[in-house]
C-alpha cells in the first residue's frame, strides 16, 4: 500500500482526473472542513435570519439542505482520515459525495431563497435530484467497497 503522497501502482502513468493519493486525502479533508464550516454558517443564518422570512415549506427545505450538508461533511471527514485513495473507486466515491453534496444542498438553498426574493429558480429543480443521485452513487460505492472486502 503506498504512503500518502505516493502514487499507487494502478494509477502509475495515467493522465486522468484522479489526484495522487496524498493530494486526494488533502482535497477530501479540506472539502469536508469547508462544507462543515459552511453548514454552521448556513444553519445559523437559517435559524436567525430566515426563520421569520421564509414560509414553512421553504424553511423546512433549507434545513434539509443544511442537514444533508452536515451529514456528508462528516462522512467526507471520516473518509479523508480512513481511506488511502489507493484505488480509483475510492476516489470516485469521494467525488460523488463532494459533487452530490454541493449540487443537492446548494440547489435547495437557492430554491428556498429564490422563493423569498420572488425570483423563479425552478430551473434548479433538476439539479437537486442530480445531486441526490450522486450521493446515492457515493453510498453505493461505499457499500460495494465493504462487500468487496468481505467476499
Automatic annotation (TrEMBL):
A GO CC term attached to the entry: plasma membrane
Chief site of localization: membrane
Domain of life: Bacteria
Keywords: Membrane, Transmembrane, Transmembrane helix
InterPro entries cross-referenced by the UniProt entry: DUF423 (IPR006696)
Membrane topology reported for the UniProt record: Multi-pass membrane protein
Transmembrane regions: 24-47, 68-86, 92-111, 123-147
UniProt record similarity statement: Belongs to the UPF0382 family.
Designated name of the protein: Uncharacterized membrane protein YgdD (TMEM256/DUF423 family)
